[in-house]
Amino acid sequence: MKYIKNYNLKTFAKDVSGILTGSFLSSFALYSFIIPNNFVSGGVGGIAVLLESIGLIKSYLALYLMNIPLMITALIRLRKDFAVKTVIATTLISLIMALMENTHFMRFTEDRLLSAVYSGIIYGIGLGMLFERGGSSGGSEIVANLIIKRNPNAKVTRLIMIMDVIVILAGAVVFDGWSVVYAIICSVTLERSMAVYLGKGKTGGMYYIITDQPDALAEELGRGFHREGICYPAFGARTGNRKTLMQLFLPAGSQAKAKAIIEKTDPAAFSFVISVHTEGKGNRI
Asked: pLDDT for 4-34, tens place per residue?
């Protein structure tokens, strides 16, 4: 099933501004707050910070090199719009960090606690902008999408959490015990600020919908919430039936409206929300 997006000049302008701003904020958080204060944020970015800290390679170069195989895989296996936007954002983040390095851009090292909070807020908003425009900063986001495409029921968040914990604990070995505390503060603040940004001031949840009618459902949800979701081809682990998995972030209080739209558009769809499970009528694949 081919997913068709109504792409016009206005949407293009929003994508460009969102990806540019999101990439800059992500680079700013990493270069000006996280790296100079000796703590990590988890994921591939955290590994890059560790590699620079022990003197092996600059973080912006390590970040890009580690993402190259993931970006190639994304271009082959994932939706082309998501993959292309992710490649652009990942490239921009590395280039902007390199430019900051060469121009001796400002760094904040006076207070590690405040740096952890500020970096979480800035990084979260930056990632939220990239996600809002249908892309990501690479790394664990690509891994998560690849896993979900292969197995929609996989517990991706648990896998990513384990990866982040390993990276954060490695930071304690390279830096000090307090780096774990600051890394956790940064990660929690990042997650909350990203949720608040995507919810336009309200927290919310990530909706996962397994459906036979992705075009109609995307149109109705888009009309109802003015949000851009992501679709992945999926199949039943037991039956092998072909379906489509939709992923969409909606603000708090949207559950009843979303459920009504899903039931009206595709009564056989199955949906759930992270942390709050809601099932529509119909069976799973």
From this structure: 445 578 888 888 999 999 999 999 999 999 9
Compute the distance between CA of residue 183 and CA of residue 38 in angstroms, rounded to an integer.
Answer: 9
Rounded to an integer, what distance in angstroms lies between the CA atom of residue 199 and that of residue 219? 19
CATH of the domain at 225: 3.30.70.120
Retrieve residue 168's tokens: 């954060």
- pTM for the structure as a whole: 0.67
**Same domain, yes or no: 232 and 212:** yes
Q: b/e string for 230-267 if b means 16 or more Cβ within 10 A? A: bbbbbbeeeeeeebbbbbbbbbeebbeebbebbeebbe
CA distance 259 to 124: 28
Q: Is residue 164 part of a domain?
A: yes
Single out the residue of 101, 97, 94 nearest to residue 65, CA to CA. Answer: 94
Domains: count for the chain: 2
